[in-house]
Amino acid sequence: MKWATCDLTDYALRKADDTLVLGQRLSQWCGHGPVLEQDIALTNVALDLIGQARGYYQMAAAWRADGSTEDDLAYRRDVPQFGNHLLVELPNGHWGDTLVRQFFFDTYNFYLLEHLAHSPVTALSELAQKAYKEVSYHAQFSAEWVIRLGDGTDESRAKVVESIAHLWPYTGELFEDTDLDRRLAEAGAVPLPSSLRSLWLQKVEEVLALATLELPDPAAYMQKGGLHGRHTEHLGFLLAEMQFLPRAYPDAKW
Amino acid sequence: MSVHPDAWPLWEVFVRSKNGLAHKHSGSLHAPDAETALKSARDVYTRRSEGISIWVIPSSAIVASAPDEREPLFAPSDDKPYRHPTFYDIPDEVGHM
Q1: Which of A116, A185, A219, A222 is a plausible cystine mate for A128, CB 3.0–4.6 Å?
Q2: What Å distances lie between residue A199 and A229, B30, B46, CA to CA?
């Protein structure tokens, strides 16, 4: 059975939304990092993610073939049309919150891209091969920060333990198999999200052990909804800020 | 800026560019340890494809000549132009050297 182009379009849109929303979140740190060097490091990650989002949006726009552009998809869709995971839209919080969120997402993105790099869908595999190199670095960067904070001072440890407890319920959704995922996975186009879970758990447990922290209960209650357009109250504010200019000046060029 | 950058030592960063033969001084940064200094150097000094190899060295490990010793150290070579190999006649056939 061959995959349907409309399914691929929706799939690319979800990945685009994940990377755009997280890129936008990280860009909010620009000029506010704890030290200059880390400010630049996080901004680099933000730019990589926005670059990946562009790739996915261009792909989706090409598959839609209805004249819509990457900008239309990024700037003229509202909250219920966004299919990103809830994790990436959560507020930045403090440095530890941001880096734990990043560590959870980077580790997921790393294994996702590793598999997508072998997709028979050329557009997906080409993007994944390029993004894989970027995300390998992101995953290393955020993991090292989790280790540093967990195995750091009493204060950094207490804060990061709280960050993990707060963000953990948003990690289950990363491995939710929707009907769309099942159809595409059955056609061999993409990995089934649930198939990445054990790899993710193993890596997260390994890094948390190095950070002298405990892995939270994998069977805990998990938040869901993002993939179906049901978002937290935070996404609307993020989109309002991000989309203001293209909505107020629809034909603006820059 | 909640963490005072002085809490972290200063490192000097040397980058070897794609077609460069030697590492060149690019600048400095603050980092808690060598590994982080390397990572930060990658982010701060090679984000426009400037390099393929990085060295980081604790700034405190660098021994510099003193500015007020400039005369005795460097002035004596100013009047010894014969130390430059500019007095040889090069045959035209050799071309650009």
Answers
A1: A116
A2: 27, 35, 31
- The structure tokens 């969120």 sit at A101
Any B CB within 8 A of A38 CB: yes
Which domains are present in chain B?
5-94 (3.10.20.520)
Q: Are B11 and B58 in contact (CB under 8 A)?
A: yes
**A187 inside 8 A of chain B by CB:** no
Alpha carbons A165 and B12: distance in angstroms, whole number: 39
Give the position of tokens 């004249």: A67
List, as own/partner pairs, every contact residues A121-124 make where C-beta atoms lie below 8 angstroms and the sequence separation is at least 24, other chains included: A121/A3, A121/A8, A121/A189, A121/A190, A123/A59, A123/A62, A124/A8, A124/A12, A124/A59, A124/A189, A124/A190
Task: For residue A217, give Cα distances in angstroms to A164, A212, A214, A237, B87.
Answer: 11, 16, 9, 31, 80
- Confidence check: pLDDT of B97 > 80: no
Q: Which fold has domain A5-248?
A: Ferritin (1.20.1260)
Mean pLDDT of A206-218: 97
Residues of chain B whose C-beta is under 8 A from some C-beta in A? 1-3, 5, 8, 29-31, 35-36, 39-40, 43-44, 47
Asked if the Cβ–Cβ distance from B40 to A37 is below 8 Å, we say yes
**Letter for the amino acid at A93?**
G
Shortest Cα distance, chain A CAs vs residue B71, angstroms: 38
Chosen for mutation from B44, B48, B56 (greatest number of chain A CBs closer than 10 Å) is B44
Q: Which two tokens stand for residue A107?
A: 């580790």
From A35, A41, A144, residue closest to B30, measured CB to CB: A35
What pTM did the predictor assign?
0.88
**Residues of chain B positioned with their CB less than 8 A from the CB of A34:** 1-3
The answer to whether residue A87 scores a pLDDT higher than 90 is yes
